[in-house]
Amino acid sequence: MTQTQAVAGPQGELLLRTMPLPADTSFNGDIFGGWIMAQMDLAGSMMAKEVTRTRTATVAVESMQFIKPVRVGDVVCCYGRVQRIGTTSVTIMLEVWVRPILHADKNQFTNFKVTEAAITYVALGEDGRKQPIRKSKADT
Ligand SMILES: CC(C)(COP(=O)(O)OP(=O)(O)OC[C@H]1O[C@@H](n2cnc3c(N)ncnc32)[C@H](O)[C@@H]1OP(=O)(O)O)[C@@H](O)C(=O)NCCC(=O)NCCS
């Protein structure tokens, strides 16, 4: 890996920190991928609403790859950053990192990335239809 390719750790703001329960496992005992996707959607929607200051709807999830399994008792952290603000939509780049507090060697918590995806949210008006995102003074 070259110096320019090296990425130290999570990119973006910590949006959500949680811990999966036994009820969140799939038949093979690891955490169900759908649970992880739900946490990402929740985390991303919070950041999207800070941008749009409206209700939002999830309109698209870019393809995802699960790099490592998540286990019960892992601390799951969702990080996000605004990737693009369009006319009615905002795309949030999300990364999920795990802090394996129950499964690491004594006091050796090596965080690792589980997955990442870009999720796009559309700003909705009271009528449930898309609406233009109002630009804040900071954006102009
Ligand atoms: C969100 C919704 C109201 C948008 O309605 P629409 O009038 O068809 O919207 P458009 O096709 O014009 O797209 C609106 C914005 O989303 C973007 N968008 C639409 N499909 C997209 C995709 N596949 N990937 C990325 N962006 C997408 C468009 O580029 C546009 O952004 P812009 O205005 O910033 O350029 C409608 O698609 C909807 O209700 N979807 C269901 C949402 C939902 O229920 N989500 C929960 C998942 S169960």
From TrEMBL:
Q: Does the keyword Endoplasmic reticulum apply?
A: no
> Which GO MF terms are attached to this record?
long-chain fatty acyl-CoA hydrolase activity
Please report the stretch or stretches of sequence annotated as the HotDog ACOT-type domain: 10-127
This protein's UniProt keywords: Hydrolase
Q: Which PROSITE patterns match?
A: HOTDOG_ACOT (PS51770)
- GO cellular component entries: cytosol
Family annotation (Pfam families): 4HBT
Q: What is this protein called?
A: Acyl-CoA thioesterase
The major lineage groups are:
Bacteria, Pseudomonadati, Thermodesulfobacteriota, Desulfobulbia, Desulfobulbales
